[in-house]
Amino acid sequence: MALGAALALLVVASPASAGNGGAAPTAAPGAGSGGAATTVATAAGNGGRSGGAPADRPAPSGGRASSRRTGGAAVGVAPRRAKPPRRAAPKRRAAARRPARKTPPRRVAAPSTPDPGTVAGRFPVVGSYTFGGEGSRFGAGRPGHVHQGQDVAAASGTPIVAPVDGTVTWKANQPKGAGIYIVVRGAADGRDYVFMHLKRGSVVVAPGQAVAAGDALAQVGSTGASSGPHLHFEIWVGGWQASGGAPIDPLPQLQRWAAGTA
Question: The M23ase beta-sheet core domain covers which part of the protein (predicted)?
Fold first, then answer.
């Protein structure tokens, strides 16, 4: 009892709580243990809080640090890899257009019309000339057709005359073929005489006009599909380009006119 009274007096007389506005210290008696263990908790210097954790305590161990303030990845978590941009699919090249196939001209077989013979007349080219080679002959091969006349090569501008009396029945221009051409129908034999590749501006006759042997018709030229100045000369039996009509080889007739034996 004397020891307990002494401790009570000590607590009452202690100046620890004076002037700090804090809680009074507490003493836990060690009754029955033969001694005392005094525990004093003070809030001096911390704003009057007691028994709490300090304001700047570290984050508890084992937790994750927040990434909101730093913008970085959370501790212990691997950052996500950014996905690579998708590559645009390569554009397919437009297939090259194949040129349209041109329909070849209908092949015309060499006619088998018998030669009716020769008639009197004169050679149609007035000046130097040549009959050329095999490619200039009647029946020679051509792309898509056969040659239906005889070529007479001569200088451009060489005069061309009517070989027989007759009437001009046709005058036209075929830029990709015969060029400028005329047709004369013989008065005596009814055959058609065709003159092709004439020089532009040289034709001096018109359809329906009557001509006599030796009358001027035009000049040698190279219009249409031509490799050089020449007269392409044809003779047709049964009408030029008419139903039932057909060309014949004109070379025998030309040779006799040239020789003056027709």
Answer: 146-240
